[in-house]
Amino acid sequence: MENINFQINRLKDLIKYCNDSPDILELEGMAFVKKVMNLMEEIPHVYTEIPKPAASDAEKEKEDKKEKEEPKVEEEEEKSEPESDVELDLEGVIEPDVDDTPQIMGDPNKSPTDEEMDEANDLRSKAASAYSEQNFQESIDFYTKAIELNPGNALYHAKRGQAYLKLKKPNKCIKDCDKALELNCDSAAAYKFRGRANRLLGNWESAAKDLRQACKLDFDEEADEWLKEVTPNAKKLEQHKLKQERKKTEKEIKAREQRRKAATAAHEAAASANANNSSNTNEPQFDINNFLKFMDPEVSAAFKDIMANPMNIMKYQNNPKVMKILEQLGAAAGGGAGGFPGGFPGGFPGAGGAGGFPGFPGGFPGAGANPPQQAPPKPTDFTDDMD
User: Alpha carbon 162 to chain centroid distance?
Assistant: First the structure.
């Protein structure tokens, strides 16, 4: 078990060093380590999750009480200002009609002949006369026959909807006006009568929207009066909805900020725990020999040879694979990595100008530096020849 713990601690040191100096993962021999670390990022709980200490009975009781109270607060906020609490003038609102009698809309594929169109116009005149005499059901019957002959005429549907209004059947009026607007999207009459029907049902915002559009398309004094009638209630509801949307947005922003703070706190706690673990002097330090196991065998053998005798680096001056790794490691060390923990005291100068590789007293000669200069030859003494 002690040996397993020892190896685990070594692996922790390797991971920490790679986290501190991620450039090291781009080296040729570190592909396996990079793959493992990428896998660990996908399952971060393997090495970053911090177990929570067991809560005492008092703390558990406090948390349970808090969880029970919080939902109540949210419910109170949501129910604090429901739409029903808005003070509206409900005078003139009626019960919705629930007549199940099918509403004849005509055959949408029918193409009326000239005779049928003339007959439909005659029926429309009879419907208008019946309406003026307040025979509203008779007017509806005449419009229905006209619709059967010429179902594509939007005005027939809108005018029948007007007659339904007189019989206090706003839902049937809305169906007729919907059909009229399907046939002619610029039918001012359809917007006008549908707006009035929505007003009778207490649909203030829809009523105001339809009546505004009716006045825009074809100004009508009656439609304008109806619009003035529904505008106060419509404005109250619009302002109420804006207020509720603003509260909802503020609540979402607050929740996001709380989640951000919680995530930041968890991240800082994990970083602190990792720092405490790495600073534990009882744990074994990073071992370069263990680190070299992840490298290319040829590079690893060259490193061991150089570790045995730094002067052996001269053997590898013409080996681009070894020299490239040396230069990259030298650059990483000189860039602030601080070298391998527990590794080579000293360093080698000249590795790409990085300022030396930690590990060898005096540094590696020849790794990008000038080779050692040989002593000049001793001058020849010519005096012996002159005797």
Answer: 49
Q: Identify whether the C-beta of residue 36 lies closer than 8 Å to the C-beta of residue 312.
A: no
Under a CB-based contact definition with an 8 Å cutoff, are residues 183 and 169 in contact?
A: no
d(CA 77, CA 247) in angstroms, rounded, equals 9
Kindly give the interhelix angle for 221-278 and 188-201, rounded to the nearest 10 degrees: 70
Q: What is the largest distance, in Å, between two alpha-carbon atoms of the chain?
A: 159
Sign of the dihedral defined by the CA atoms of residues 42, 46, 48, 54, in that order: positive
How far is 158 from 174, CA to CA, in rounded Å?
Answer: 9
Encoded tokens for 339:
């070298």
Please tell me the number of Cα atoms within 13 Å of 76 on its side-chain side.
5
Buried b (16+ CB within 10 A) or exposed e, 299-309: bbebbeebbee
- Residues 6+ positions from 315 with CB-CB distance below 8 Å: 302, 305
CB-CB contact of 285 with 13 (8 Å): yes
Euclidean distance between CA atoms 190 and 174, whole angstroms: 9
Q: Measuring CA to CA, which residue among 231, 164, 219 is closest to residue 192?
A: 219
| Gap between the Cα atoms of 339 and 13, Å rounded | 13
> Is the pTM higher than 0.85?
no
DSSP 13: H
Query: What is the per-residue pLDDT across 179-223, written as a single tens digit (0 to 9) for each?
Result: 999 999 999 999 999 999 999 999 999 999 999 999 999 999 999
> Domains, the chain, ranges and CATH?
2-44+287-337 (no CATH), 114-237 (1.25.40.10)
Amino acid at 194: R
Residues belonging to the chain: 387
Q: Among 174, 240, 180, 175, which Cα is nearest to 205's?
A: 240
Residue 282 CA to residue 220 CA, distance in Å, equals 91
Angle, CA 359 vertex, CA 353 and CA 361 arms, to 5°: 85
Task: Output the six-digit token pair for 159.
Answer: 């005018």
Q: What tens digit of pLDDT does each residue of 252-307 get?
A: 999 998 888 888 888 888 887 777 666 554 544 445 555 555 567 777 788 778 77
